Amino acid sequence: VTYCAAISACEQVQQWEQALGLLREMQERRLRPSVIAFGALLSACERRQKWERALTLVGTMQQQGLEPDVIACNAAISACEKGERWEHALGQLQGMLRSRLEPSIVTHNAVASACEKGAQWQRALSVFEDLLRHGPEPDVLTYGAALGACLAGRQWARALEVAQEMQRRHFELSTITCQAAFGACELGGRHLPAQDFLAAVSRRGLAIVSDQVH
């Protein structure tokens, strides 16, 4: 318990190296770290964007017969997202599903964001669409990642659908989300839909800067 508390304290102040040192000390004393201790270590790695170390810790947990919980998996996936390692983030999600762990909205958002950052817009949209079909309930970050993927893939029609879906679910359209949908129309060469969308957004009092459509 003392070691777990110390590791958690290190995680809180973002001292990931000290936290790992405590883990090594536990192993030297043949003390078995708990899932909670590993979760704190993974959170520390996530904050410092140490995705390789995070994945190593997940492997260590499994070698010791400990099954990572959703919190631990989310920390590892978020570390991969911050390190722009979409393939590892997606692999962790698939591992959760194989272990019958139910991914949370944090899980899906991190994976979708990792795919978007990695220029894998098709995969990001696939994660988004799977979320709409099977849950959990998407949030603003989910839609932001989906719109970013649409923008990257010049998927103007899908971008407008995502924006409309946000409205149907009573999410407030921000300037940033509108900019992404509008940008997808512009990049897709769909100037008329872009102008229509611009007019609709303007009626809502949101400003979008256009370099191409006037």
TrEMBL record:
Signal peptide: none annotated. The keyword Repeat applies. The lineage of its organism: Eukaryota, Sar, Alveolata, Dinophyceae, Gonyaulacales. It comes from the Eukaryota. Keywords: Repeat. Gene3D superfamilies: Tetratricopeptide repeat domain. PPR repeats lie at residues 1-33, 34-68, 69-103, 104-138, 139-173. It comes from Alexandrium monilatum. This is Pentacotripeptide-repeat region of PRORP domain-containing protein. Pfam families: PPR_3.
